[in-house]
Structure formats: C-alpha cells, structure tokens
Structure prediction request, 151 residues.
Amino acid sequence: MSKTFDRYASVILFIVGIGIIMESMKISESAYGSNVGPNIFPMGLGIILVLLCIRLFYETFRYPSGEQTKQALDVKRFLLILGAAVLYAWLLETVGYVITTFLFLLFAFQVMQRGEWWKSVLIAAVFSYGIYYLFVEVMDGTLPGFPVWFQ
Prediction:
C-alpha cells in the first residue's frame, strides 16, 4: 500500500480502461448464431477497470499518513495463479468453460486462502455454472460449456 504507486497506477490503468472501452466499440456488436456480440466482454471489463481505478484513486486520499511498512512480495502465490491462468486459457476450448472455470477458481481460492473447502467448492460451482447459464441461456450467447465426451 504505497500512496504514490497507487495514484500513478490508478491514473495509468484508468487511461488503459478508457482505451479498452473505445477499442471495444470498434468490434462487431453481433456474431453469427449469438445475440451477444464479441464487444460485450471487453467493454464490460473496461468499464469495471475504470470504476475500480476511480475507487483506488479515491482510496489513496484516505490512507493514513506517516510511516509505511513494506510488505514482502508473495511471488510463489503469484506464479501459481499465473500458471493456473495460462493452463485455464489453454484448456478452455477442449475441456469447456464450466469445468475449467470451476477448477481454476477452486485452485485460486485455495492458493489465496487454504482451508474452507466447502465454501470454495460452492462459490466456484455457483460462479462457473451461473455465468455460463446467464451468458448462454439468458443472453443467448455462445461458450464452450462442456467437452464433447461429457455431453
């Protein structure tokens, strides 16, 4: 928690978020066989990034003044989750969204905070299937839900 770093990061990421929103407007609004266009997720992520940057910038004014304690970087957890994210992207098409998202979230939750398996399983299952249901059934979009051998 460095006030200066957080302020610079919030401004830079705010600009990146605006760029993502502007570039997502250039993407097609509809896709063949889907009512949800490929522009929805980048635009939504850009809006979320902008809102989080505004929140972070606001929070920097509420930081306590005085000495700042240095926190050690947790490289091991970062590398574990980065590796899991790469594996998630690699397996998404072949294994399907629901299973890979469930496994990725379960792994990430356990890396971040060990224990409480039932909460991690419940949240990962509800999130992975809930997002799939919302996107495919409600919004009429397309996602690789389950692998062919599972259906």
Notes: Residues 17 and 113 are 29 Å apart (CA to CA). The chain has five helices and no strands. The first helix runs from residue 3 to 24. The chain has a mean pLDDT of 86.
